Amino acid sequence: MTCDVTPWPAHGGQAAPLLARYGLPPDHPVTDFSANLNPLGPPVWVPARLAAAAEGLSRYPAPDYRAAREAIAREAGVAAEQVLLTNGGAEAIFLVAAAHAGGRAVIVQPTFTEYARACRAFGIAVDDLSLAPPDFSLDPERLGASLAPDTLLFLCRPNNPTGTLVPRETVQRLLTQAAMHDCRVVVDEAFIDFVTSPEESLAPLLARFDNLILLRSLTKLYALPGLRLGYLLASESLVRQLQVGQPPWSVNHLAAELVAPLLADSAFLARTRQWLADEQPRLQAGLAGAGLEVIPSRANFFLVRPAMEPESMTGQSLKPMTQEPGTGRRGGHSGALFERLLRFGILARHTHGFPGLDGGWLRLALRDRDANARLLAALDEGGVR
């Protein structure tokens, strides 16, 4: 194995440093399974719409982004005053952390690393509540017991990188418990658009719980990560409080102009839901059939690791894995699998940096049928099964 000391990139979609890490040329062809983006997008009309909106670049955006916020409010079933438009989901995370500087937070792990990073930036003491395989399920009683007065709770739903979804009823119980301790619950729903059950939305709970903050992203569903477009839903008073820490015009004109037409494109959403219905079960079954342990996912990605222990990664001899979850032995096989896939032109998402996973798993995005077939072929040819 060829491997240099190039640091592991903190996010997906970063092929160059990983190719360098394994001594592969910069032009080594790869299919990117490391970034969880809709393979159908962006919608075909986006370039023309951006070109038409370009004439507004000579003016400042409307400071309150009223049209964009009203479009989001209609979609979510809340008042426009409960919406804060943000420069991607990352700005929303940092705004919440800034409003609780010097406090305490509980983060349900393993999860998106930017929650911890934002807490560090604002001097927030963090306690991790770690979930474990085989299902990474959340025990609401255990979580409730970890809450203390004025605690900020971060929960990702569906969770990145596990793809698991805490049931709405469980979140309601947590919100009730948190309210008793004067705690705020931040639920990051960046991938909620890939959950095909509309009743799973937490937006209706905003009418009952003033301690709920929902974070949303428009870049995952519409495959527009370079545009940086997200929003936050909360009570009117909390939105006003968070807005105080937001720089003026943090969302650019082009991004703000896309909000309403993106949300109005019901045909694109229907196509996405059909793609999910077709490819999600197909890829999950294929990954399991290829000798991988697969965490059942409610999102557009899968967390996997070798379910068998190969004596040599050639496919000639396989025996059941007997190590306990979380031990390093199978993690080593995940590292070997990562390199093998990369050499076959498949870029997976490593899990170095996710507390509790520590490189022992891989995350694979759900792509279109042809790309998914190439992934399964690479797993087969690479000797995983």
Comma- or semicolon-separated keywords:
7-stranded mixed beta sheet; 4-stranded antiparallel beta sheet; alpha/beta; 2 domains; Aspartate Aminotransferase, domain 1; single chain; Aspartate Aminotransferase, domain 2; 385 residues
Question: What is the gist of this entry?
Answer:
This protein has 385 residues and is α/β, with parallel strands linked by helices.
Question: Distance between the terminal alpha carbons, to the nearest Å?
Answer: 20 Å
Task: Enumerate the spans where pLDDT stays under 50 for 5 or more consecutive residues.
Answer: 310-330
* Count of discrete domains: 2
Main pleated-sheet profile: 7 strands, mixed
Q: Return the CATH class of the largest domain.
A: Alpha Beta
* Order of strands, widest sheet: 2-8-7-6-5-3-4
Describe the structure.
This protein has 385 residues and is of the alpha/beta class. It folds into 2 domains: 15-32 and 268-381, Aspartate Aminotransferase, domain 1, CATH 3.90.1150; 46-264, Aspartate Aminotransferase, domain 2 (3-Layer(aba) Sandwich). Helix content is 36%, strand content 16%. It has 12 helices and 15 strands. It has helices at residues 15-21, 46-53, 66-76, 88-99, 114-121, 140-145, 168-180, 236-243, 253-264, 266-289, 328-343, 369-381; strands at 31-32, 83-86, 104-109, 125-130, 151-156, 184-188, 212-217, 230-233, 292-294, 301-306, 308-310, 318-320, 346-347, 349-350, 362-365. Strands 2-8-7-6-5-3-4 form a 7-stranded mixed β-sheet, with helices on both faces. Strand 3, helix 5 (114-121) and strand 4 form a beta-alpha-beta unit. Helix 4 (88-99) packs across helix 5 (114-121) and helix 10 (266-289) packs parallel to helix 12. The longest helix has 24 residues, at 266-289. It is globular. It starts with 14 loop residues before the first helix and ends with a helix. The relative contact order is 0.17. The model is unreliable at 310-330 (pLDDT under 50).
